[in-house]
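Researcher: Please predict.
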Amino acid sequence: MTSLQTVLKDYSKEPIKILDNSIPLNEYCPLDLSESNSALKHIDITNHTVCQKYIDDVLRANNAQVAYGGYLEKRNLYADKSSFSNESLKRNIHLGIDFWAKAYTKVVVPIHGKVHSYQNNVTIGDYGPTIILEHILKDIVFYTLYGHLSLASIANLQIGQEFKAGDTLATLGTPDSNVNYAPHLHFQIIIDLEDKSGDYQGVAAENQLDYYTKNCPNPNFLLKM
């Protein structure tokens, strides 16, 4: 276990909510969007309307409001997006955890931090409105990325603006603003931003995983979902 993984694990013994504090944890349920999920074999998961229907079915079956999962999940969700693939590289392994819920659901800060950068990433398949926070915990600097937000979430932000744990940071976007996905939060922990601002790769190719699994540790070290 790395130093960062250790301090994240020790930060809280209890699960940490990342969406609206009024949603109880027993109304979160796991979601499998991997290519090995037989329930997805005959549906076009790349279509946000079809994807939303599948997620709604999972939520209904589990009497839940939030469906979550996806760290290092190999997905077909990006198969129709040219920015994820070329002749030599196929990026389809997810580096964060997704939280699927209704548009405009509040996004809650899990740990004290300040705004490092933000940006509207408008390429099809990207994040849409995105916020990156900088954190320091036991003298270790790291970053959290929040993607697929509403446009209003970045309208009045300031670089360096501070947020305490539990503060509302943003709200989830609709498909027209989050670049054609069903509403959800992409949450990712990053050690080295590689001089990026307002954006960082959230999906990797299999031959990139040695680097990205080290640079983007499992968010559940912190959240404990």
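Model: Residues 3-11+89-223 form a domain with the Glucose Permease (Domain IIA) fold (CATH 2.70.70.10).
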